[in-house]
Amino acid sequence: SETNQKPLVPPNPSKMEGYDPDTTPSSSGGSRWTPVLDPTNNNTIIGHHYSGLNYNVDEPCALQTLEIWHPATPASIAHGKPSLNETYGAGREAPWLVYIHGGAWRDPAIDSSSFTPSATKILSSLFQRSSSPIKKLAGIASINYRLSPYPNHPTSPSDPTDDSRTAQHPDHIADVLTAIAHLEKYYGMKSYVLAGHSCGATLALQACMDPARWEKDDDNKQGWGPKMFVKGGLGDGYGGVQEVAKPRTVVGFNGLYDLAGFIESPPQGYERWREAYREFVTSAFGSDEKVWRTACPASAGPSWVKEWKLTQRGEEGKKRKAVLVQSLEDSLVPVEQTEGMARYLEKENEQVNGDNKVEVAVLREEKGGDHDEVWQRGDRLGEILVSVLEGEI
Ligand SMILES: Nc1ccccc1C(=O)C[C@H](N)C(=O)O
Question: ipTM, 2 decimals?
Answer without folding.
Answer: 0.94
